[in-house]
Task: structure prediction
Amino acid sequence: MHSHAAALSLYWLGQAGFLLEASGLRILIDPYLSDSLAKKYHNTATPHDRLVPAPISPQALGQVDLTICTHHHTDHMDGETLMALADRLPGLRFMVPAAARDMALERTGVSPERLIPADAGERHDLFEGRLSVHVMRAAHETLERDHAGHHRFLGYGLEIGGHRVFHSGDTIPFAGQVDEIRAFAPDLMLLPVNGRSEALHRRGIAGNLTIGEAVDLTKACGAPAMVPHHFGMFAVNTADPRDIVSAVAVAPFQMITATHHTAIEPVP
Result:
């Protein structure tokens, strides 16, 4: 982080969702602010009822300058949330994996020019240089590509106001991951910590980093701070908060644990 960095505010919206404010911009990542999954999985073996209510509605979020989705799963690309935002904010654009372009058009309801399709290895400079988005690979258990070779799961490095914030998307460790992230040199890493299991995999639920793996990844990438997320939303797929608290106590960097709708301002 540069000494002249502007203040950065970060709000955890639950699951992998964050609202980031810096340099006069408000960037939304993976917002899930509805109950669409509770409806989708009602009366199934994998109920997705919320353990906590949505901290805010899409209508109450105020101005949003860019919404970013890391991949196509509904808790990251939620049609109810995205369509409400798109309707309320006609100038809002959506950065989505190129592999999920058609699904994103359907779930946002926007015209194609409001989408910014992205793929790993790209850099997108937006808002007259106030925001640079570095797009990286993610492995939601596996590194997957579509028929055109586009990566289905992405992470994003946001360079804004003198800060470098990395949101991994849903991921587990994979070869080359540390080198990619270290090249971005993040000041802050936002990492999922709900882990994975064969039992969940058999039920069609892909997993993520464990809290231990998230700590190891942050340390290997040389980042001074990390926020763990992707827990506490669905009973079927979460992590024990006690494990996260234990990891905080011994992490060799600053680990910022937050409750939903907690603001971190500015990031030290």
In short: The radius of gyration is 17 Å. Residues 211-221 form the longest helix (11 residues).
